[in-house]
Amino acid sequence: MIKAIVLDLDGTLLNSRKEITPDTRQALLRAQKAGIRLALASARSLNGLARFGRQLELERNHGMLICYNGGLITDAQSGDTLYSRAMPKELATEICRFLKQYDVIPMIDRGKYLYLNDAFAGTIHYNGGELDIIRYESRSNEFLICETEDLAEWIDSDVPKILVAAEPELLDEIEEKLAAPFRDRAKAGRTAPYYFEYNARDADKAAAMLQAFEAAGISSDEMMAFGDAQNDESMIRAVGYGIAMGNAVDSLKEIAFDVTDDCDSDGIAKALYKYLPELRDVEI
Description:
It is built from 10 helices and 16 strands. By secondary structure, the protein is of the alpha/beta class. It folds into 2 domains: about 5-85 and about 205-280, HAD superfamily/HAD-like (Rossmann fold, 3-Layer(aba) Sandwich); about 90-200, Hypothetical Protein, Haloacid Dehalogenase-like Hydrolase, Chain: A, domain 2. The strands form 3 sheets. Strands 5-4-3-2-1-14-15-16 form an 8-stranded mixed beta sheet, sandwiched between helices. A 6-stranded mixed beta sheet has the order 10-7-6-11-13-12, sandwiched between helices. Strand 4 and strand 5 form a beta hairpin.
């Protein structure tokens, strides 16, 4: 019996227009009406998850927001922090100093603000055009932008995530160089063609998900999870029903319990009705 559903955001819950489709939203509202708990799990910050949680009415249904690739869990209904993992400020400072040798844009969020060095130096080339990556990130996650003279020296507390933006071709070239010096102390890797991220070493979507739901009496065999990227692998492996989206990377499809349709074709709704056909009759 499925008692909890965990959803990655970009490329999974959200379609290519960064929206939750009406049919997918309806299926997830029906699931909650039937007593199933929902959690959103993403590399995004709490600020970046909150509006999608509101669209799915998580605050009314005791849902959870799993942020920073498992570095933070918040109860959407009470606002309480259920789980937290962050990089020590000394490590975050070291990483930001290290990044100065590369033509990259480091960003750190805190509350409603996105901190960076130069708000007017955010243009990268992507997919045949220009993308203001700072504007994209701030608007996508409803951040206000705040400049600081030196991001490395600004850090005065532990940091859940350092987001690094750059030309995709440059990240292809230096990805291993960015990760290697910190591999034993932080999680580091690509989360998009133009994004590289550092998280706390013990931040993990699966570990966070299991701790939160098992505390609520829900076992991994009673969980369903949806994802599309490499950073979803741990949670897809950990649950009884690990579902890869049709647009997922091949490595995720290979380990998934099942593969559904893509994020632009209501893959989540189709999988829910496949394994929980009774949801079609739930009134919302």
